[in-house]
Amino acid sequence: MSTLKSSAEDLTLNADGSGNDVIIQSDGSTKAIITAEGKVGIGTSSPSAVLETKNTTDGTTLAFQATNDNDHEIVQIGAQGDGDGYLTVHGQGASTNIKALIHSDDDSYFNGGNVGIGTSSPALYTGAGVTIGSPLLTVLNSGNAVGGELILGRQTSAQTANLSWGSIAFVFGGHGTSARRVMSRISSVADYGAYGGDSGELRFYTNPSNDTEQERLRITADGIVTVNPSQAAIGTTPFVVKGAVNNTVGKFYHDNTSGNETMFTFYDGDNTACGSITIHTTNNTVAFNTSSDYRLKENVVPMSGSIDRLKELKPSRFNFITNPGNTMDGFLAHEVSDYVPEAIFGEKDAMTTEVLYTEDDELPEGKSVGDVKEPSVIDGQGIDQSKLVPLLTGALQEAVAKIEELTTRIETLENA
Predict the structure, then answer these.
(1) SS3 245
(2) How far apart are CA 184 and CA 137, in angstroms?
């Protein structure tokens, strides 16, 4: 027998007997049920969980409402007609102020404050001279074995060239997707090199102008690092290393301890070797080598007139303007170019091109479009004095030949 009992404080609804349910009906149909097992069903007469709600139409199935904020739902759980489910978390104000959305088959997003994984304080980080302003996501490991880890990837066994395993993109722009712009990106891509398709390489991209992303750095699975792998014409030096005062700018080591080893090789656009820097690890010496193989040359003839050309050179004593106290020996580049042109790089009296600020530049305070950004400066000539050695050798050989000829004539006269 079922009973409904009321007291000063409680209202008790009791379904006596084993296996009996408490059923709430309206208009002849069951609206809610509390089963004998203690399960609650709303919109269903056979709940399979402690609490189960069912909506026979599209839309919200379960909602939690904030009565002190315009009576709108702050959490909604529902489904669409195609069977896809969703969960939304709303912020203050209008019900359209969605802070988080989880959708079973569509875009999901978080648009609230900072997110912490393994930490309850995912806010501003400052320490060891580094400040990171308001990170949206902070991942920390509470243990001591490893640091916080973020895993990106895809579940696939496909062996496809350049298949991306995951990317981290840095985006600038507004809330609309059309207003956003990828400023730079790091991507892990399937590398079909020495380790096959199950290995990955890292690629680093930047976006110098809208929608013209360029790969700037690549690290392959076997450890090869390539700067500007796409050979993009960037109009400047692609690799720059800056040293501090009294510090060595760079060190290069080779594991071998005997014999010659190549440290650097230089190639042209046809992938032809032009020269190298090598070391002799036994003698601890360095050699700067340029291509000189006879198989690369033609029209080879002996030098002549070397003394005449040598006499046109004008060795000088001078100092550089930036260091007036240091006088040295050398040449003025343009005075050499007519006689040993291969020793000279650049043109006489050349200047760099003046660069002006444009509408695409971030203008410093007090600057306007059309003002000088980079002034024209001396584009100085250079000289490779080692290229003078063949002329010096030829002139010396001609001089030796003349000396030997004169010596023979003198000996002949003395013996007459």
Answers:
(1) coil
(2) 18
- C-alpha angle with apex 248: 246 to 249, nearest 5 degrees? 115
Rounded CA gap, 392 and 292, in Å?
A: 18
The Cα–Cα gap between 212 and 195 comes to 31
Q: How many CB atoms lie within 10 A of CB 47?
A: 21
Among positive and negative, which fits the CA dihedral 294, 299, 302, 307? negative
CA-to-CA dists, residue 308 to 296, 393, 398, angstroms = 28, 13, 10
pLDDT for 321 equals 96
- Tens of pLDDT, residue by residue over 117-171, are 777 776 655 554 555 556 667 777 666 656 667 777 776 666 666 777 788 888 7
- Euclidean distance between CA atoms 157 and 144, whole angstroms: 34
In the structure encoding, which two tokens stand for residue 71, read together? 């009576």
Handedness of CA 94, 100, 102, 107 (dihedral sign): positive
Neighbours of 270 (CB within 10 A): 5
Distance CA 287, CA 274 (A): 14
CA distance 230 to 108: 35
- Radius of gyration of the CA atoms of the chain, in A: 40
Torsion over CA: 28, 34, 35, 36 (sign): negative
Three-state SS for 83-96 is CCEEEEEECCCCCC
Predicted structure pTM score: 0.65
The three-state secondary structure class of 246 is coil
Compute φ and ψ for 306, nearest 5 degrees.
-65, -40
Whether 132 and 138 have beta carbons less than 8 Å apart is answered as no
Q: Which is it for strands 98-103 and 109-110: parallel, antiparallel or unpaired? A: antiparallel
Instruction: Say if CB 357 and CB 371 are below 8 A apart.
Output: yes
- Tally of helices (H runs) and strands (E runs) in the chain: 3, 29
> In 10 A of CB 54, how many CB atoms?
14
Residue 393 has pLDDT above 80, yes or no: yes
Residue 179, CA distances (Å) to 124, 172, 233 in order: 27, 8, 27
